[in-house]
Amino acid sequence: MIRQDGSAARGWMALGVAITAVLWGCGGGDAGEAGSAESGMRVADVGFMTPESILMDTAADVYLVSNINGGPTEEDNNGFISRVTPDGTVENLRWIDGAAGLFPLHAPKGMAISGDTLFVADITCIRMFNRTSGEFLSDLCLEGTSFLNDVAIGPEGSIFVTDTGMRAGAAGLEPAGTDAIYRLPRGEGLRGATLARDAELGGPNGIAIGSRGIFVVTFGSGEVLRFTAGGEKSVLLPASNRQYDGIIFLNDGSFMFSAWGDSSIYMVGSTGSVQRVIRNVEAPADIGYDSRRNRVLIPLFNQNAIVIHDLGQAATTTGM
Description:
By secondary structure, this protein is mainly beta. It has one domain: Neuraminidase, CATH 2.120.10. Helices cover about 5% and strands about 45% of the residues. It is built from one helix and 27 strands. A hairpin with a 4-residue loop joins strand 25 (about 290) and strand 26 (about 295-300). It is globular and about 45 Å long.
């Protein structure tokens, strides 16, 4: 169970105000010269198909890349997950492949690992695979959902998943009103509970969990939200047009998030300082983190490519 005492909660509310003042008061949060996509290692023309999320398997020292390969709500059973080594070599493009016909995998998005199980969000279901072999284990489909997007593991082993609340419409994706965050306790049946559910949540997208609480970024409303284990919500960054997608915690507890609205990656430190550390990354989706090498891993949703970006010493000077 994630616990938060009153003083810590008040500190985070104050930090939210500080972050807001820095980011919006300074016209976008550039603190020094931001890097660009070109300054990272770009892996392209290797067969990625709409890469949506990157997760580091720290035990295997490999990056996992989920590929939607079609529409994000299409039940076409052709999604796949790639294995990429830290030097950018594609070890196995279709390591887990829905097109093989052995299990369903339509439009894989966010991923998380707990023990030897890989959890993958796939439209209305969570697919579970063996972390080392890629063998399909089981799935859990959640009634009343439409767009399961990102997965995170809580300190007590619970599985958290976001529903961005979108569905296919005549003009493309449109709001479905199922916006929610679910907490699924480990155990037989993985019977879950709703942490938060509200059509006004703003399209919860990326989720990251640490000692500071449950952090969620929203795509529709462009907010950074914090939730307690009891579901109490506070706003760290208010609504914007930045369309946030992924969020990660760094080694020192600071956090980063990706923004489609201005093609950027932001980092937030403990004092509320906001730094736009990477620019010119079109449609940066669910970012990952290589904690061994201090790298942010960026899937480029529209370019069938990923960027591996070394953060260097700069990322460790703004501790959370």
